[in-house]
Amino acid sequence: MKTNRVLLKLSGEALAGPKKTGFDEDTVREVARQVKMSVEAGVQVGIVIGGGNFWRGRTSNAIDRTKADQIGMLATVMNCIYVSEIFRTEGMKTQILTPFECGSMTKLFSKDRANKYFAKGMVVFFAGGTGHPYFSTDTGIVLRAVEMDANCILLAKSIDGVYDSDPKVNPDAKKYDTISIEEVIEKKLAVVDLTASIMCMEHHMPMAVFDLNEKDSIANAMQGKINGTIVTV
């Protein structure tokens, strides 16, 4: 798996650490340390962060879905601003791009602008999802990966790969070292949501799933060493 330019997906819950909400600074600094190793090795890194440590719009039946999703988009912007600043304190240059205006806090996304930042060795955060309701950050990262001609998508999760069933429920669940995106869709394994899965299949975008909490898992994945599951296309 080539890793000249990768898009890394971090879950908001993972960044919250044991608290399950907000931020756990030690966790974020450990992510920053590993990303810095990769940037110094010449990898161009884009990052998408979920908003689940603040808000999950789909779990709320009290308000309009569009408004709920807009709150979720803003949660991802907050996450990217925080993580970006931690990255800066660790010595990296960063920039945050959003599909909508956020005053002076972010820059408006364009492929040319993102490529300019990558060429300068900056870590580029893609916040705000697609900018539209009814699309998850899963779809957002696949969209950006395809637009930015990334080599692959790296999914750092709280689980160490893709299983044929939930290992928390089924102790005999089988872990896949490699699985095709067609199998993921057919078996409804929910590596990413269905819209994102179909986009990966149509645009031949491979993914890798691995455990965020395993030592140096991000740095290893960005060098093509996947101790998890590779989703082929």
Describe the fold and architecture.
With 233 residues, the protein is an alpha/beta fold. It has 8 helices and 11 strands. It has helices at residues 12-16, 25-40, 65-89, 111-119, 137-147, 181-186, 194-203, 217-221; strands spanning 5-10, 44-49, 94-98, 107-108, 123-126, 152-157, 162-163, 175-176, 178-180, 207-211, 229-232. Strands 4-3-5-2-1-6-10-11-9 form a 9-stranded mixed β-sheet, with helices on both faces. The longest helix has 25 residues, at 65-89. The model has no long low-confidence stretch (mean pLDDT 92).
Strand count, sense and barrel status of the largest sheet are: 9 strands, mixed
Strands of the widest sheet, in order across it, are 4-3-5-2-1-6-10-11-9
Q: What structural category do the secondary elements indicate?
A: alpha/beta
Indicate the radius of gyration in whole angstroms: 17 Å
Mean pLDDT across all amino acids: 92
**Share of residues in helices:** 25-40%
Based on Cα principal axes, name the global outline: globular
Task: Describe how the helices and strands are arranged.
Blueprint: E1 5-10, H1 12-16, H2 25-40, E2 44-49, H3 65-89, E3 94-98, E4 107-108, H4 111-119, E5 123-126, H5 137-147, E6 152-157, E7 162-163, E8 175-176, E9 178-180, H6 181-186, H7 194-203, E10 207-211, H8 217-221, E11 229-232
Parallel strand pairs: 1-2, 1-6, 2-5, 3-4, 3-5, 6-10, 9-11
Antiparallel strand pairs: 7-8, 10-11
Helix pairs in contact: 5-7
Give a quick summary of the entry.
This protein is α/β, with parallel strands linked by helices and 233 residues long. It has eight helices and eleven strands.
